[in-house]
Specification:
Layout: E1 3-14, E2 17-28, E3 32-36, H1 43-51, E4 58-63, E5 66-67, E6 78-81, H2 93-103, H3 108-121, H4 137-149, E7 155-159, H5 167-184, E8 187-192, H6 195-201, E9 204-209, E10 212-217, H7 219-224, H8 229-234, E11 238-246, E12 249-252, E13 255-258, E14 268-274, E15 279-281, E16 289-301, E17 304-311, E18 314-321, E19 334-339, E20 345-348
Parallel strand pairs: 3-8, 3-9, 6-7, 7-8
Antiparallel strand pairs: 1-2, 1-4, 4-5, 9-10, 11-12, 11-14, 12-13, 14-20, 15-19, 16-17, 16-19, 17-18
Length: about 350
């Protein structure tokens, strides 16, 4: 498949600080690609290099097959949507979206057609003459996206554009963004620290940490099969148990935990099990690992309940859906917790 963006061995240093460290990846044409990681991991710097606001110290960036070394931002086939949006308050919706087209001195008829088509894509038809202050947060976000899309970039770059929104509106905008990307078929590269956001929208996710790529894969691959302990901890809610591996068991603080048999594991290992993979009940059967314990904490959260229990010296967090008729336990209730060995991810201790 055709590649729209490629980074080859890219490093970016700011004096003595290495913000991006030997990063390489490809983004396919029409893909929704997310850079996911904690604050300061290098994802925004990577995006700014693709946009042309920063130059790599080492390495090369290609957009649509062309090298971008020395090409200024305004000459690149990319557009960047900032977290701050940077909309013009003195212009109405139409004026904001048409601004760059008028700078290019396109014919007014073409401007009206392109703005009209873009308004339809972002579902803002009828709001052309509204001032920015008259719009909701979600509408303002869509104006910023429309202003970028109307230039028909090869690649749209988005730097945490949903960050300022409240949770409900952010979830709605995630759906809108995915719909827009699917309609226009433009390549999106999206920066976020929110794993749920990346999971919901992305075709491919690159998880970054300390300037390096930890893992690249589909949302399912990243979630179900993390390749490093950082990815296992960062993506999803994982419980972590340190112990010693031997012949399909991890021995940890008196617990014997059945895990998949693996070759080439060191004796000291870290075991991860997702919170939603753990069952909690008065009675449990047909699970590989079952332990007696009592409820230490309960956090009711509408559609699901979170429990915290103690197994010897380990705390386990458990997430269960609140299905009709299902018992919600209380603190100090005696319970069983359990999971299957296939739900264990075991890695040699770093």
């Amino acid at each position: 498949m055709e590649t729209d963006v490629e980074l080859r061995d890219v490093t970016k240093k700011f004096e003595t600080v290495t913000a991006v460290d030997d990063v390489s990846f490809e983004v396919r044409k029409g893909e929704f690609f997310s850079l996911l990681g904690p604050s300061g991991c290098g994802k925004t710097t990577t995006l700014r290099m693709i946009a042309g606001f920063e130059e790599p110290t080492v390495g090369e960036i290609y957009v649509a097959g062309q090298p971008m070394r020395g090409v200024p931002a305004f000459k690149r086939p990319t557009n960047l949507v900032f977290q701050s949006l940077a909309l013009f308050p003195h212009l109405d919706v139409f004026g904001n979206i048409a601004f760059a087209l008028r700078i290019k001195k396109l014919p007014e008829a073409e401007i009206r057609k392109r703005v009209g088509d873009t308004l339809a894509v972002v579902e803002l038809v009828g709001l052309e003459r509204r001032k920015i202050r008259q719009l909701s947060g979600g509408q303002q976000q869509r104006v910023a996206i429309a202003r970028a899309l109307v230039n028909e970039p090869k690649v749209l770059l988005l730097d945490e554009p949903l960050g300022p929104l409240d949770l409900k509106l952010r979830i709605e905008m995630q759906k809108q963004l995915k719909r827009i990307q699917h309609e226009v078929k433009t390549t999106f590269i999206y920066v976020t620290h929110d794993q749920n956001e990346a999971m919901m929208m992305s075709d491919t996710i690159a998880v970054m940490n300390y300037g390096r790529i930890e893992q690249i894969g589909t949302p399912e691959e990243i979630y179900e099969n993390p390749l490093t302990s950082f990815v296992a901890r960062f993506v999803g809610q994982s419980n972590m148990i340190e112990g010693e591996y031997s012949d399909g068991f991890v021995v940890a603080q008196g617990l014997n935990i059945m895990v998949p048999v693996q070759q080439q594991l060191k004796s000291e290992v870290t075991l991860f099990v997702k919170s939603e993979k753990i069952a909690i009940a008065r009675r449990l059967e047909q699970l590989d690992n079952i332990f007696e314990t009592e409820v230490n904490e309960v956090r009711y959260n509408g559609p699901y309940t979170e429990y915290r229990v103690v197994l010897n010296r380990f705390f386990l967090n458990i997430v269960t859906p609140n299905l009709k008729g299902k018992e919600i336990f209380k603190v100090s209730d005696k319970v069983l917790v359990g999971w299957n060995k296939e739900d264990c991810i075991v890695m040699s201790k770093d």
